[in-house]
Amino acid sequence: MSEKRARVKFGNWLSTAPATVGGLSLIGWLCVVLSVMLMVLSFVLGNFGGGFLALLLGLLFTMIFIWRVGELDAGRTIAARVLERVSHARRTAMGEAQYRTGVFSALPAGHLSALPGALANVEELDGLDGTGQPYTLLHHKSVKQIAATLTCVPDGIELLPQDVVDAQVSTFGSWISELSKDTAIAGATITVDSAYSSKEPLVAKLNSEVAPWAPEVAKQAFAQATDLLPDRYTHTSVHGTVVWSVKNLGENVEEAEAEIAAKLPHHRTELYGAGAGIPVTATSEDLAKVVQVAYNPHRAVEHGTDELLGQENPLRVVDAGPEYFDDFQKRVAFHDGVASMTAMMTVPPRIHITERIFKGLFAPQEKFLRKRVTVFYRPLSTGEAIKKAEQLRNATKVSATAKSAASGFDKQKVILAEKTENDLVEGASMTAFTLMVTVTFEPTDKAYREATQKLKNLLDGTNLGYRFVDVGVSAAFHSTLPLGILPWSYRGVVDVVSEGL
Fold first, then answer.
1. pTM over 0.90
2. For residues 247 and 332, what is the distance between their CA atoms, to the nearest angstrom?
3. Which H/E stretch holds residue 430?
4. Domain coordinates in residue numbering, the chain
5. Which residue from 472, 442, 377 is spatially nearest to 177, judged by alpha carbons?
6. Terminal-residue alpha carbon distance, the chain
7. β-strands 280-281, 232-245: how paired?
């Protein structure tokens, strides 16, 4: 009698939220204590007004910049919320929340269909890598980073032996750990774009492959068979994007490009071993199609028909901007006849997971014209990882000992934090991660309600914390595209301070 093997589980997720005692971080308590001490000192010196003022200012600073309002480990400061709304109001008042392309737009000649926002300052770098494959790298000039996108065709796991699936996941984990070993890598993303598509392009493709000399009865049987196909079928595309820092690769962009071109075959090989099919480096024309379909999902049929007719798409990605993109309304952006919204992870899953936990989130789903899930990986150097592990251990111990009786969940967090330190000592690496989900739907109230409820159901089933992006919808939408936008690379000093100490 065979013995059933235990399922392999993955994950050692730890929240990076600061330690809290009674809902307030240690720095917050320090501010409160200092303000009280200044008040007492002022009273001793006879300055009662100054004492009350010191206490008031200390409490106000704590309430605005340190106190986090919201769910456990995912609360946000008042400063962050206010800054978002002020920034949104300013952008809307200045017309920055509306973007137009074409001859009647304010864009300069030669850039009448340019991409919006951070992507407007992107430069294309074309060439051949060491194996002779063409590539297009995207140079994000404002942050001095270069991104390479790899198009993947993953193996379906439904018919694969579980041992093979476990091996592929392990290989993928090894690839993620390698990101921290290459000090030039600023981050990486995996984007899964899925949709239910019309059967018409598929039927046309199948008909084009029927030999003209085939028997008439066979043609009729084939036509009847295609008529029985459902009106829609699922379509999924996967892209892996790796982003390098120019200054850590060479003296200039040319040297950095040469270094990246030499590294591309290695990353394709690693992703191949992780079950990504045969990855290829995306060209500008490939990325342009992805962007156009993201702005208008209905264009997928157009691109499918062009491919059947053998027609090439000469459009470059830097010229694949939308006809219009409006994000003046909270949560929802309107572009090219459709609408989109984005949700972002705030707290990682609190459990060990298998590769099937996120299946529903990544798979094509009804109620959406298009769904794009992007996982962001931020590698940490050895020094950064050890420092982060120490902070995590201290934070979990403080949170656990601050209670009269630590819960089982608190004890487990302490165990995981200590295990993380031990793993790092033994040579493991640490990579921070988060994910964002962008869904596109018809611009109607009914479609919005259905899309919102469906997205909530999918996210609730993953055991992670999340919130909808209500302000900065355009930035969130473009961050989930496989073009190498790393949100943390665009954070300013004001953003860091407003998020709390």
1. no
2. 37
3. strand 430-441
4. 67-498
5. 377
6. 58
7. unpaired
